[in-house]
Amino acid sequence: MTPVLQSRFGPMYAVELHRSETGDRYDRVSEVRQRGTGLLLLDSRMSIRVSALPAAMLDALRNTDTPFGQLLQGAGIAARSVSREITRLAGEDGAPDRLGRRHIIVDAATDAPICDLHEVLNHAEVLLAAAGPMAGGIRHGA
């Protein structure tokens, strides 16, 4: 989703909230925020197959704030999304529901799984504010 988000919201960064590493799995919970404003764009949970990625990319994931999709592009890894499903996270205390998607990212050449990813977008009002003058391209309430 990183290229699509960047086209709408400009530069972004990831804030790691939690991580664990066990065997061939690197699990991470993070937020993706707009660099210029710090606005939260989405929450992310990912489970990465360590053996599917170069060590340098894993080091960058552990030690930089670069979003995962941007790291994949930078490492020259052609990837695609499979098994996509749209999710709805119920709002708490009267807050509106949030939409997201769960999918698996695979190596485009081999179909080998790289990452199981669940992303949940922030509320529409925040996304519209983050889009600023580009908000006309985002359908509100659709």
Instruction: Give the CA-CA distance, first to last residue.
Output: 19 Å
User: What strand line-up does the widest sheet have?
Assistant: 1-2-3-6-5-4
Oligomeric status of the shown chains?
single chain
- Coarse structural class: alpha+beta
Shape: globular
Helix content: 10-25%
Mean pLDDT: 88
Radius of gyration: 15 Å
In terms of per-residue confidence, which ranges show pLDDT below 50 for 5 or more consecutive residues? 136-142
The count of DSSP E runs of length 2 or more, i.e. the number of strands, is: 6
| Strand percent estimate | 35-45%
The SSE string, one letter per element, is: HEEEHHEEEH
Biggest sheet architecture: 6 strands, antiparallel
How many DSSP helices? Answer: 4
Layout of secondary structure:
Blueprint: H1 2-9, E1 12-22, E2 25-34, E3 40-49, H2 55-63, H3 68-74, E4 79-89, E5 98-107, E6 113-121, H4 124-131
For this entry, give a set of tags.
142 residues, alpha+beta, 23% helix, globular
Question: What would you say this structure looks like, in words?
Answer:
By secondary structure, the chain is of the alpha+beta class. Helix content is 23%, strand content 43%. The chain is built from 4 helices and 6 strands, in the order H-E-E-E-H-H-E-E-E-H. The protein has a 6-stranded antiparallel beta sheet with strand order 1-2-3-6-5-4. The longest helix is centred in the middle third of the chain and has 9 residues, at 55-63. The two termini are 19 Å apart.
